Structure formats: C-alpha cells, structure tokens
Amino acid sequence: MFLQSLALIAYSCFLITFPPTVSATNDVTIEPHIPGLTRSILHSSSSGEDYDFTGPTTLQWGWDMQTITRAAQRGEKWLYQPFTWLIYQVGSDMKDLLESDIVFNMSCQYELSTKITQGDRFQVELSIKEPYIAPIGNTTPDSMAHGGYIICPEGICQNDKCKDWKVPKWDRSYIELWSPKQTATPMPTPMPADETSVAQFSSAPISQSSQSS
Questions:
Q1: Domain boundaries in the chain?
Q2: 46-101 pLDDT per residue, tens
Q3: 138 φ, ψ to 5°?
Q4: Contact 68, 208 (CB under 8 A)
Q5: 213 residues of the chain, pLDDT tens digit each
Q6: Is 178 helix (H, G, I), strand (E, B) or coil?
Q7: What is the pTM of this model?
Q8: Are 160 and 101 in contact (CB under 8 A)?
Q9: Do the beta carbons of residue 59 and residue 201 sit within 8 Å?
Q10: d(CA 144, CA 133)
C-alpha cells in the first residue's frame, strides 16, 4: 500500500512537471473561435487541400519552429496564412456555398510574429460585430498584438439584406488598439464566447481532426 501511494505521488508529480507538449507541426498556434452562422475555408498551398469548418467552433493553425526560424533568418517579421470567412444569413443551414445565403464574404489571414517562442498559443475570438476580434483564454491584449492574431482587411456584401450594414473588416491598425504599448485608446470589450466544438488543422505537414467539447 505504501509503495502504491509513492507510485501515485510520483505519477502525479510527473503530470505536473511534464505537461503535454505541442507536436512538431504545431510548435506555435493561433486558435480563433468563430461564431455560429459563419464558415472558415482555408486552402493550404503546401498540401493543396481545403479545410472547411462551420461555426460555432474553435480552429487552430500551427507553424513548426523550423519554418519560423528560417523566416526570421530571411529578415521576415511576420508569417501569413490566408483564408476565407463567410458570414451567412439567419436560417441558413450552411451546407452549400449558395450566394443567396451568404451575407458577407471576407478575405482574412492569420498573422504570426517570427519573434515568438516555442509553445506560444494565441487564442482569439472573432465576431461579426465590434469588437471584431478579442483575446481570450491566456492570451493578453499585448501578446495578441505583438505575437499572433487574425485580420480581415477586405470583404464584400453580396446580399441585398446587408447593403446598409457595416462590413466586419479590420486591419493591423485595428489590432494595435489592443496593445497598451501602442496607444492610449480604450480597448474594446470582448464578446462572450459561444458553445464550441474543436476543429484542428496544422500547416506542414497537414493533419486534421475534429473533437466535440
């Protein structure tokens, strides 16, 4: 019994001292939560595959440290991964890419600083209303602004119902509003999170899985 207790204590210490590590293809990740009635479609140039997920869900795009280090050595300050974010009208089942069901068609991209460290995770929440992006989880406003985030600088309304609505687009200057080091402008208030499921996909090599929370 005494030996079993010692073994249990040792096992517990092992779990505390050595937490699970990020896999080689996900050394650093940006993990956006997208709301319901929205859809993320990402085309990977390295694999030629498309990754298509509907909200509410939490996505993950990852880079390996070798890719990040090589980019930094070339003098690159940021890494990018574009994707399309579709926003549907209420009542749509989002099963088809019917233009009549799509309200906004947004051109977005992940942006990651090459000055990050292995194991960094940048968790953000996207919204179709201001603030369009907000740090969540352990991500701080400053770490998001200087480490990893998402921008959607271009977008169009392709439905008569949204002709008088504001297109939910933002660029890097909007992200800088989140950084106390950049501006004294009051930071936006984060939107509450939805119920989520988790869908993961990584950069190179590509792996994909889906897990309900």
A1: 25-207
A2: 778 889 999 999 999 999 999 999 999 999 999 999 999 999 998 888 877 777 88
A3: -90, 0
A4: no
A5: 433 443 433 333 322 222 223 333 689 999 999 999 999 999 888 778 889 999 999 999 999 999 999 999 999 999 999 999 999 998 888 877 777 889 999 999 999 999 999 999 999 999 999 889 999 999 999 999 999 999 999 999 988 888 889 999 999 999 988 766 544 333 444 443 333 334 444 333 333 333 333
A6: helix
A7: 0.75
A8: no
A9: yes
A10: 10
Report the Cα 94 to chain-centroid distance in Å: 20
Closest CA to 124 of 55, 58, 25, 54: 58
DSSP codes joined into one string, 134-147 = EE-TT--HHHHHHT
| H helix intervals, the chain | 2-17, 65-73, 141-146, 172-175
CB 121 within 8 A of CB 29: yes
Whole-number Å distance between alpha carbons of 149 and 134: 9
